[in-house]
Amino acid sequence: MFADFATSNDGTRIAYEITGSGPAIVLLHGGAQSRQTWRAAGYLDRLSSNFTVLTMDLRGHGDSDKPTSVEAYGIERHCQDILSVVDHAGIGRFSLWGYSFGANTGRYLAAESERVARFVMVGVPFGPGASGDFRRMVMGVRDRWIPILRAQSEATLDLESLTDPERAYLQSSRAQHEVPWLTAILDWREIVPAQLLCPTLWILGGKNSVALENARSIGSALPNSKVLLCTIDGLTHEMEMSDIDNVLPRVQEFIRNTPE
After folding, report:
1. How much is the pTM?
2. How far apart, in whole angstroms, are the C-alpha atoms of residue 63 and residue 108?
3. What are the C-alpha distances in Å from 24 to residues 96, 168, 212?
4. SS3 for 58?
5. Could you report the per-residue pLDDT of 151-195, keeping only the tens digit for each?
6. Which of 33, 49, 188, 251 could form a disulfide with 29 if both were Cys (CB 3.0 to 4.6 A apart)?
């Protein structure tokens, strides 16, 4: 499918597609994925008969522009991208559904914009943008790769200092934008359930141990928020996207039965 493009307020071009008709729902993909992930998993076919479905490539992904600075991936940039896309598409209020990195991103907009009527947050914990093992992984990427990318830009990089996989990754040109967008998450502020402005369905797989531990630790905060926790037994983090037969009916029920 061919994409339309919206231009965000910093000049970054964001690719998106619209299918179907009905109330608008915006889908945000996971990290290192694209808007096509939703189509491949079958969601567009099933949603488009009842909803206007907007899928977009988050900056640094798919057909969208891929800036190479850490600052370009601040959470305020991502939130503005979503609003720029829905404005370009002529959409006012909308439901927002994010998986993994898309859910991490979407919760900030759901905490800031009254235009988000409902939010579906799949597979990620509350708290800062990166915590626990994920934070340690990102810090390792940052500490290893930011100096490499700086040396490359200054033409001082010794390729012999890299392993074969590292050289292949560098030559693929993915590192130039993937390292910055990962690094930026380290500075994304904390979000707690009470900050979300709209009804929110928080979906977690029963085998997503990290997010489930977070849910247990903040469980007392949920009754005083707009967040409804839904745990689906047997699902790993990957299956929170791929198991459409278990995930989609719960999302459809939430959107249809939750007033704006």
Report:
1. 0.97
2. 23
3. 9, 41, 29
4. coil
5. 999 999 999 999 999 999 999 999 999 999 999 999 999 999 999
6. 33
